[in-house]
Amino acid sequence: MNLSSGGPTTCTHDLLEGISAINDGVKLLTFNDSSNIAGSGKPWLKLVDPDGITPLMISRNFKQALCSEEYDIYHCNALWLYSNHITCKIARDKHKPYIISTHGMLYPTALKIKPWKKWPMMKLWFHNDIMKATCIHATCEEERDYVRKFGYKGPIAVIPNPVVVPPNILCKQNISERKSIGFLGRLHPIKKVENLIYAMDLVRKKHSIDFTLEIIGKGSVEYERYLRSIVEKLGLNENVNFVGFLTGDIKYHKLSEMWALFVPSEQENFGMIVPEALVCGTPVYASLGTPWRELRTHNCGWWEDNSPSTIASIIEALFSKTKAELLTMGKSGRNLVLGKYEQHIVAKMMVDLYSWILNKKAKPEFVYE
Q1: CA angle at residue 7 from 115 to 20, to 5 degrees?
Q2: How far is it, in rounded angstroms, from Cα 183 to Cα 219?
Q3: Which whole number is the average pLDDT over 78-91?
Q4: What CA–CA distance (Å, rounded) separates 16 from 343?
Q5: 3-class secondary structure for 42-67?
Q6: Tell me: the pLDDT tens digits for 184-215?
Q7: Where would you tag: which of 78, 146, 193, 255 has the fewest CB atoms within 10 A of its CB?
């Protein structure tokens, strides 16, 4: 739950905050392995001393903490670590229901990353954990479909990630005179940031548009070095800024300054950066590998393929719009988030799922059997 871990940490924290406002019986168990833990000091956070060994983080402390208390339902976030597996196993041993939030980890592209590591873990633990889950939580319909293709036949709940709208973050009322576009996220080859750089080069060769690209985030050192080499080769050093990792108000300020956020990922599930930008009133381009068709249907951005030529055409379309048109797109995007993805709306969905699993409520409409 280190704050620097990005999306999964943020959405898990925000979900627990929302649920705890409805039911104070919720707890989040995690390692006390940092001074920068999301939710530090909150009554719902339960920390155990880190004693993880091996890359799987096998931990006696984590297991003992799970065994020492009784819960009505267990909810495992993500896969591939001992803490994920032991949560599922102990739930089964106690004859209690359990949910797995896969966080996009069953997407085909995700499964292809380090297959030499995931294949034995799948055979040893996780195939059984997944197949015996009471319910799988997917953040979008595309993820639901991939879970089905994986072979899971039980109920799947489609609940988006929650979006916290800071009270001081308003929908922007004007467009910056300085033309800029941006990428925000973990730097990893699956994000295809190079396509955005190549698209920028295509636009600059065709038009005399003076604009900058802000690349916000950290991740793979090798991938960042690769991106910097492309920038150097294309002579874009003066136009591309590697900003580094940002969070909090500084992040939102950067998003507000952009004319648009670009998400050219090869494949991604929900992607917290999209609604975060929309909340600021910033239009978003997202690739067809993301589940953001609503950008097109709600007139708050673009949902197209991620080829450099397509991205270049979207950059051209962006800078051809009037400021009034961009502000209208921004308001539409913010309204979409507030009406569908706001933290308390999503937290209520998760509590309704728990209640259904515990036979206290009728099956919610977002559960697919």
Answers
A1: 120
A2: 13
A3: 94
A4: 10
A5: CCCEEEECCCCECCCCECHHHHHHHH
A6: 998 999 999 999 999 999 999 999 889 999 99
A7: 78
Reading the block at residue 133, the tokens are 């889950």
Residue 238's closest CA among 211, 263, 258? 211
Distance CA 162, CA 11 (A): 6
The bridge status of strand 240-244 relative to strand 98-101 is unpaired
Please check whether residue 223 is in contact with residue 242, taking contact to mean a CB–CB distance below 8 angstroms.
no
d(CA 263, CA 7): 14
Tokens linked to 137: 């939580």
Compute the Cα dihedral for 124, 133, 105, 64 and give only its sign.
negative
Residue with tokens 């905050």: 17
- pLDDT confidence band for 297 (50 / 70 / 90): very high
Q: What is the pTM of this model?
A: 0.84
List, in sequence order, every residue forming a beta bridge with 30; answer none if it has no partner. Answer: 47
Cβ atoms within 10 Å, residue 221: 9
- Distance in angstroms (rounded) separating the CA atoms of residues 84 and 362: 28
- pLDDT confidence band for 247 (50 / 70 / 90): confident
CA 260 → CA 136, 208, 212, 226, 295, distances in Å? Answer: 33, 19, 11, 24, 12
- Residues 28-74 pLDDT 10s: 999 988 778 888 889 999 999 989 878 888 999 999 999 999 999 99
Helix (H, G, I), strand (E, B) or coil at 199: helix
| Backbone angle region of 116, left / alpha / beta, with phi > 0 → left and psi within -120 to 50 → alpha | alpha
The contacts of residue 21 (CB under 8 Å, 6+ apart) are 344, 347
Residue 9 vs residues 4, 16, 72, 103, 362: alpha-carbon distances, Å: 8, 11, 23, 11, 30
pLDDT at residue 8 above 80?
A: no
What residues contact residue 346 under an 8 Å CB cut-off, 6+ apart? 15, 18, 159, 160, 161, 162, 163
Q: Pairing mode, if any, of strands 28-31 and 45-48?
A: parallel
Question: How buried is residue 70: exposed, middle or buried, by Cβ count under 10 Å (0-12/13-18/19+)?
Answer: exposed
